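2024-03-11 09:14:02 INFO worker-7 job=invfold-0412 stage=load source=structure_tokens
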């Protein structure tokens, strides 16, 4: 069952989402060559607790960390390690926070210094596909309208859409109904309803869509060893339209990127 949230509950969820947004903004100013993902994990936990919340992932399904940090060919669910981040890496940082009984959950893939041009393009297209998907999260549409838009947008660039992991409903549980796949057929799946909140999170591979899990029981990597990108926003359906609860604005401020997310919505070309 899809759990509808009241306006008041959506405002509480915005608070949780924004704590994660601010955490990722802090990470944006700390992530650089030589820094370990384990160090970033410590900083993130302190930051979240300083903001009156608790880490959303730690302890959930026995997850040992505050962040999930996935480097290069790692798709998602990478556990923080002592390996220093290197120039040219890409690092997906996924973070959750729990406050007032509601979860926030979002992610951004960072470029470390000079990244290969084709990898930069993968990141750009994956981020655009997030907005392409969010635009379809509106009254009258169904679950697979979001996924099919993301799939068509990214496959048009020759990329592989991960099938084994999907976005999800979000609320008092980290994973609520419905599942939000990044693939599908237009017009299929559950109908969207007012007040629902979802985490939309395209996981897009450079080539093959196939993935496998490492022996640590967590890290998902591409089967072909090529890079993968991951961007995630929390979105509520308010007055029949998608409303972003999380924002990349703190990341953009830290990185000196001029961007207005509302513009990004409009800028991304329509796909039919
Ligand atoms: Mg996440
Ligand atoms: Mg998620």
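2024-03-11 09:14:09 INFO worker-7 stage=emit residues=272
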């Amino acid at each position: 069952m899809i759990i509808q949230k009241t306006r008041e509950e959506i405002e509480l969820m915005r608070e949780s989402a924004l704590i994660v947004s601010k955490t990722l903004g802090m990470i944006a100013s700390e992530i650089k060559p030589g820094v370990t993902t384990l160090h970033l994990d410590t900083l993130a936990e302190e930051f979240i607790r300083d903001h009156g919340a608790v880490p959303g992932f730690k302890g959930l399904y026995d997850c040992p960390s505050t962040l999930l940090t996935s480097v290069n060919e790692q798709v998602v669910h990478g556990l923080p390690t002592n390996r220093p981040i290197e120039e040219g890496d890409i690092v997906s940082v996924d973070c959750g926070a729990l406050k007032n009984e509601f979860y926030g959950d979002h992610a951004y893939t960072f470029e470390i210094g000079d990244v290969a041009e084709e990898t930069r393009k993968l990141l750009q297209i994956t981020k655009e596909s997030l907005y392409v998907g969010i635009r379809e999260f509106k009254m009258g549409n169904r679950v697979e309208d979001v996924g099919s838009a993301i799939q068509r947008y990214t496959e048009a660039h020759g990329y592989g859409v991960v099938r084994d992991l999907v976005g999800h409903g979000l609320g008092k549980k980290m994973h609520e109904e419905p599942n939000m796949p990044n693939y599908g057929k237009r017009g299929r799946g559950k109908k969207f309803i007012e007040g629902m909140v979802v985490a939309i999170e395209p996981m897009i591979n450079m080539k093959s869509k196939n993935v496998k899990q490492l022996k640590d029981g967590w890290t998902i990597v591409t089967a072909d060893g090529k890079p993968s990108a991951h961007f995630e926003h929390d979105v509520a359906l308010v007055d029949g339209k998608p409303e972003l609860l999380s924002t990349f604005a703190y990341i953009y401020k830290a990185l000196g990127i001029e961007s207005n997310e509302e513009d990004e919505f409009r800028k991304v070309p329509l796909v039919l």
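2024-03-11 09:14:09 INFO worker-7 stage=report msg="The pocket of magnesium ion (ligand 2) is lined by residues 105, 168, 199, 201, 232 (CB under 6 Å)."
2024-03-11 09:14:10 INFO worker-7 job finished
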